[in-house]
Amino acid sequence: MEANVAGALPIIVTNYARAFGVRVRMQGSEAYTNGREIVIPRLDLNDKLKARLAYGYLAHEASHVRYTDFRVVQSVKGNFLRKSLLNILEDARVEQLIGSSFIGVWENLELLRSYPDNGWNEFERDALQKPVLQLLLAYILCYTGCYAQRFKILRHRAAFLFFVLRRRFNHECLRKISRLSLKILNDRNTAEVLNTVDAIAEVLNTGGCFCADQRKLKNKRRSSQKSIKLRMGNELKAQCQALERSTDGEFSALVPGCEAASIVSALGNTQQSARDDLGVFDVGVCRPGRRNFLTLADTSSNLRRRLRQKISSWLEVRGGGRIAGNRINPYRAVFLKTGESRIFYDRLTEQGLSVSVHLLVDVSGSMLASDGEDMSRCEAACRCALSLAAALDGIDGIVPLCSFFPGSDAEVESALSIGQKVATRAAFFDQKPRGSTPLAQALWHAEESALKTSCKRHIVLVLTDGIPDSVMQAKIAAEHLASQNIECYGIGIRLDFIKSLLPCSTVIRKPSELDEAVFKLLSKVIVSQDL
Hints:
- By secondary structure, the protein is an alpha/beta fold.
- Helices cover 51% and strands 11% of the residues.
- It is built from 23 helices and twelve strands.
- It is elongated and about 100 Å long.
């Protein structure tokens, strides 16, 4: 039976591709779609449960392809609250529609919501310590799941969250939001769902919405209209900030089971090697972006100039590779005819540079964030990568390499390989955010690339803003590289997790700090150490 389930996936994928006009790929541990292709996590299809989860992911993403207007979704990307509400309500609407059109997907979709169940017990235990807005969003997710998709597992969760919210949230506002949430049963498109989202946001901006105490509420309502309006705006703003701090701005952190990576990691086998767990992954070539990207990257020209000057001046002091010594040792000179070469008293050999520097750049979906600045994390990272490669290119003894993860068509894609010149590859550094964070695959690729060079020293610099798809496999890969004397360093954006994976790492808080962080790290690593 299990073999039949696994063997059916290619047929199902073909049918979905024909029905929805998209390409389907299995890659990493994230599930997502951009309307043109569907990516589902890499799972062992010989296991019946995992194969059903794969079918569930496929059905969910296909429902978005058929029924979601992605232009409307893009319009709310700068507002975490509106984006989260739209994700929740749109998921419920499209899953209800695809369940009506394709009867067989219903049980697989429910399995996605109910597995794994262990994280929910912890969520319930800590519910009173979580921000009210997070509990409300979790309630809306479970409540709409009960009515739109008829998922039984969510009925208990919705009831639990309702009674918790009654202690911290205005009763009348909670009833209004519950009624508005069910409007998605009649909403005909994504634009109407967004109108429902705005109606819920309006309720949240009502005075006293986040107050369950009726006496305090009466005292608040005695204030003037002007002070009430001001208090309403400040109250909602404070609640939104608490929500973003609790979830780190990630929708997948709202409730357990919301993130595909958590399900995939829960299914992992700790006895497997990284290769067995990840399977055979692909390494591709990046698609070229803007032709004038080298000109656009001039914003990071200061990094290129400073780093090149630092390395060049250091090389001048060291004198590169040379042999010094002119006093002959007569006791050794007599053995010259027998092949003795150490005939000088002072023989000093200084090796010049012989190092490969491989930059691994995370371009997952979270890199779209800008942290309040004009440039997104992804744009800053791409420009920094190009400036870094340009600074190192042409310095004798340094081999610059650059790869991005995930790729458009593979888990890892190369922008600069051995022997290629940066000037001709500039457009390939211009990459857009997409998908998951297959860091383990990127590290394995870095090892393979390092072994292909003739350098004596290898440096890998990881630039990321998230947690890997598989933390376990990323640690295995990092430990393996360390055992091969490949030095791994990291720069994390806003998230300290990289330090637990690569101890010699630094963390920045916004994209504008990236160039300075790279300069300090590479100056310390390359210039301060013997090569």
